[in-house]
Specification:
Length: 374
């Protein structure tokens, strides 16, 4: 790829001619097997990158269909906000519908076939489970779904929310037919080093359309000062495969330990994995709170803080989150969160250093076991 130290330089203002920015796009496109990529710290979250992609390729009176159920909580406000004039897709007369993922393949594909009798511009696949207990999707399953959809609507755009899935398998959705793939740099591909940002990659024409939404029509990818952050972004993607491996070890350990303690774990420790997320059923509000507080107490940053549930913007229920991370909100570092509603599940992800993450998991177990002595 011919990455050089001069790609780590600083640009300000408009950022014209930022060689590092353009090289990083090239690196991501190469790694993910895509035609082009848009990698920017301007994306404040995965939700922002996904929103930019949707608004980039959809137009008024288009319709999109999710094949993996309702979108993640923060994304539902993007596609179908109850508040008028909030700027959701609904405000722009862009339709949204969904069908739930079904592990019974025959029923699932029958449902897709029936729904695709309508005309949809964009098909949306969420690789990870989000705040549900459905299984996450493997690359082979995503490929199968894409092939099925393209036989019915050859010209539709297939977009994959790739959050939490990067580098878990040996290939990515962009290598099995996805037209647009989107993710966050404070998850897997940032390696715990990238300080912020997200990416959109896929076919060049769609990446260009998304870039016009991020900046302005006709300007697109040609501007955007990187302010000296390029070095961390290159280091992050270089470190990402190892960071993901550590996170996977943490997830397997978490599953095994909490199954021994009598909790339901998804996936089980011996099952194959499609993302870095481990789900546990806590069974009570006290246990969920104790688990998150234990994770926080074993974290390298803010270990003295006690997480409590609160009404986070974009979520339907009060949510408790533990994230004693070096990068704010980073979920490739050890973190845990869950909504305060039955059956009180918690989603655990990350751990760039397995041995340090193990401390957090053991602290969570200790905190829960102490409830029995109260």
């Amino acid at each position: 790829m011919k990455v050089s130290e001069n790609h780590f330089g600083i640009t300000t203002g408009y950022g014209y001619g930022d060689r590092g920015r353009d090289k990083l796009d090239e690196v991501f496109a190469k790694i993910f097997g895509a035609e082009d990529a848009l990698v920017r710290t301007n994306f404040v979250s995965g939700t922002h990158a996904l929103t930019t992609a949707l608004f980039g390729v959809l137009r008024p009176n288009d319709k999109m269909l999710s094949l993996t159920g309702k979108l993640y909580d923060t994304m539902m406000g993007v596609v179908d906000s109850k508040d008028v004039d909030l700027g959701s897709l609904k405000d722009f007369h862009i339709g949204f519908d969904y069908i739930d993922y079904n592990e019974n393949k025959e029923k699932y594909y029958d449902s897709i076939s029936a729904k695709l009798q309508e005309k949809f511009k964009l098909i949306y696949i969420q690789r990870s489970r989000g705040y549900t207990l459905r299984k996450s999707l493997s690359i082979s399953e995503i490929k199968e779904i894409i092939n099925f959809v393209k036989r019915i609507i050859p010209d539709c755009i297939v977009m994959v929310d790739n959050c939490y899935g990067e580098f878990v398998e040996t290939i990515e959705p962009s290598e099995v037919g996805a037209d647009v793939v989107v993710g966050s740099l404070i998850k897997n591909p940032g390696g715990g080093i990238a300080p912020a940002g997200g990416y959109i990659l896929g076919y060049k024409k769609y990446v260009d359309m998304c870039s016009y939404r991020l900046t302005a029509p006709g300007i697109g990818k040609e501007v955007g000062a990187t302010l000296g952050i390029n070095r961390e972004l290159f280091m992050g993607i270089f470190s990402a495969p190892h960071a993901v491996a550590e996170a996977l070890k943490t997830a397997v350990y978490t599953s095994a330990l909490f199954e021994l303690l009598g909790f339901k774990a998804y996936p089980k420790y011996e099952e194959s994995r499609c993302d870095i997320v481990e789900s546990l059923i806590m069974g009570s509000a006290d246990a969920l709170r104790a688990f998150c507080q234990g994770i926080q107490s074993g974290s390298p940053v803010d270990s003295f803080v006690l997480p409590e549930p609160w009404d986070m913007p974009g979520y339907e229920s009060p949510v408790i989150m533990a994230a004693g991370t070096f990068i704010g909100g980073s979920s490739i570092e050890l973190s845990a969160d869950g909504p305060m509603k039955k059956p009180y599940p918690v989603w655990v992800q990350g751990g760039t250093n397995f041995y340090a993450a193990k401390v957090g998991i053991l602290k969570a177990a200790e905190k829960i076991l102490s409830l029995g002595n109260q």
